[in-house]
Amino acid sequence: MTREMLNRDAAWGRVTQEKWDIVVIGGGITGAGVAREAARRGLKTLLVEQRDYAWGTSSRSSKMVHGGLRYIAQGDIRLTWHSLTERERLLNEAPGLVSRMGYWFAHYQRVFPGRFIFGILLMVYDLLAGHRDHRFLRKPEFLKRMPGYRDSGLTGASRYTDALVDDSRLVMRVIDEAQADGTLAMNYVKAESLIMDNGRVTGVNLLDVNGNRKAVVHADVVVNATGAWADRLREKLAGEKKVRPQRGSHVVLAPGRLPVSEAVIFMHADDKRPLFIYPWEGRTIVGTTDLDHRDDLDNEATISAAEFDYILRGVNSQFPGEKITRDDVIATWSGVRPIVASGGAVNPSAERRDHIVWDNSGLVTVTGGKLTTFRLIALDVLKAARHYIPTLDASDTKAPVFRAVGPVATQYSAADLQRLKGRFGFHTDQFLAEAKPDELVPMPGVETLWAELRWAARHEQVQHLDDLLLRRTRLGLLLPKGGEALFAGIRAICQSELGWDDERWEREAQRYRELWLRHYGLPDAPAPARVANA
To answer: How many domains does the chain divide into?
Structure first.
C-alpha cells in the first residue's frame, strides 16, 4: 500500500464536491479513532483539524498507556478494566510504539498505603488486565535498582507494569489506518459554524486556514471530537458548558541527569497527588500537575513558575542527593485535559476521567476519556451516530486497530526495525525504500533518524516547522533549545521536500524559536527575595 503526498488543492476539491456520511472535527486521538472505525465500516469519512494533528491534548499527555491505579481507589472499576484491556491490545498490536515498563511505588514506615493494602490493589489491577505482573522488593534490593532514592524509613517497594507511548505518533498511525480505508484527512481546516436544516445539523462551514478558502460541507452526521474545545461547537445547541479544562505540565531533564530505567510513582508532599519520574525517548520526565486551566484555549498551554517549582520540589524530595535545579531542565510541556465537570467544587484531581457522548440535533459530541481507550470511545460515538445512519453497524467486532506489519528486508537490528514498525506501521517498507542511505542514521543525541524528518515532510502534511519538530518527531522536547543546533540539516530537508525558499525558512525558524521559548522552554525565574535592611 503506497503512500502519496497529499495534494491539498485536489483534496480541497473533494471536500467541497462530495457528500459525506460523517464529518469528524478534531484531529487528536479521539477524532482519529472515530475516523478509523467509521471508515472501516464503509462510511465516507472526512476528518478535519483546525491546527495540526495531535496539536492539543494528544501530543502533550504523560505518554502513558495505562489502566490508572487511582481509578480503582476511586471505585471506577469499569474504567480501569476497559483501560487495561485496551492497554494489552495496544501492546500486542503496536510493539515498538507502545512498550511495557515497570512502575515502582516505595513504602515507608507508618505511611499509607503500606505493602499489604497496595498489594491487594495490584492483585485487582492484574486480574482486570489478565496479566499478572507485580511483586515486592525489600529496601536493599529496591535501592540497587533505584540508587539515591529517599531511604529514611523505607521498607521496600512494590513493582507493577503499565506502558509508554509516543502519543503524537500513535495519532498519526491511527490516521494512517483511517486513510487506508478511505478517510480524507486534512489539518489546518477549521470548522467555523454548523449548518442547520429544520432544526437539525446537516453539515459544517469549513475554512482552509492556510489557503484562506471556504467550503460548505454536508453530511449525515457531524462529530465534535475537539476535546477541551468541545463546548465551542456544542454550547449554542445545548445551552450549557460541560468541559472543565485541566492543565498537566511536565519537565524534561537533560541527558545524564537522574537516569532511571523504570518509572517511580510517589505522592507529592504538598498535596498528596501522584507524580511520576520515568524514562522516555532517552530522557527522564517528571510530571504531572493537575490544575484548572483558565488561560485562552487558542493559545498553547504553558507551564507556570509555580508548577515548575512544584515539580522540582517533588523530584528532589525523592532523590535528595541529586539536587535537581532549573539548569538541569532542557524542556517542558503542558497539555489541557478535557474533563467533564461534575458540577460541584471538586478538586481537579478528584474529577472522573470517563468520556461522555451527547447528541444535540445531529451534532454528536464526545469529550473526556483517556488516550488508552480511544477505540472504545470511537465505538460509543458511532452508536450515537446510528440514529442518523440506520445501516451503520457500531458493534465491537474486536477487529485490530492496526494492520499487521509483515517481515521487512533490511540490515537493521531487530530492535531498531521494531521501533520503525511501531512508528510507520504498514508504511515501513516504503519508508525504508525511500530513505537515503546516509539519512538512515540517528540525529545527534536522539534515536530519531534523519530519514524520519524527510518522510514526515514528504508524506505527513507538515505545514509549519513546529509540526515537524514537536509532533511528527519529538526533537523539540528532547534537545536543548528545541533542536536549534541541527537547523542546518533540518533546513535542507524542509527546503527540498516542502519547497520553502530562504525567506520562508527564516520565517518558520523564527516562528518556531518564539513558540518554543514561550511554551516549551522554562518559565521565567522568580525574582530573588529581597533581604531586609540589605
So the answer is: 3
Q: What is the rounded distance in angstroms from the CA atom of residue 525 to the CA atom of residue 434?
A: 46
Measured N-to-C along each axis, helices 29-40 and 374-385 cross at an angle, to the nearest 10 degrees, of: 60
Pairing between β-strand 283-287 and β-strand 243-253 as defined by DSSP bridges = antiparallel
One domain, residues 439 and 488: yes
* Amino acid 78: pLDDT: 87
Q: What is the dihedral of CA 72, 94, 249, 49, to 10 degrees?
A: -110
The CATH number of residue 275's host domain is 3.30.9.10
Strand, helix or coil at 166?
coil
- DSSP 8-state class, residue 66: -
Q: HSE, CB side, 13 Å, CA atoms: give it for residue 479.
A: 20
The boundaries of the domain holding residue 284 are 244-340
Report how far Cα 132 is from the mean position of its chain's Cα atoms. 27
Any domain includes 149: no
DSSP state of 202: E
DSSP string, 109-161: TT-SS-HHHHHHHHHHHHHHHT----EEEEHHHHHHHSTT---TTEEEEEEEE
Q: What is the pLDDT of residues 483-528, one digit of tens each?
A: 999 999 999 999 999 999 999 999 999 999 999 999 999 998 764 4
**Tens digits of per-residue pLDDT, 204-233?**
999 999 988 999 999 999 999 999 999 999
Q: Read out DSSP for 441-501? A: SBPTTSS-BHHHHHHHHHHS---SHHIIIIIIS-HHHHSGGGGGGGHHHHHHHHHHHH---
Same domain, residue pair 225 and 277:
no
The amino acid at residue 133 is D
- Asked if 432 and 410 count as a contact pair (C-beta separation under 8 A), the reply is yes
> Considering Cα of 153, then 251, then 488, then 419, what sign does the dihedral take?
positive
- pLDDT tens digits, residue range 167-201? 999 999 999 999 999 999 999 999 999 999 999 99
Q: How many CB atoms lie within 10 A of CB 168?
A: 25
- Output the nine-digit C-alpha cell for 411: 540490515
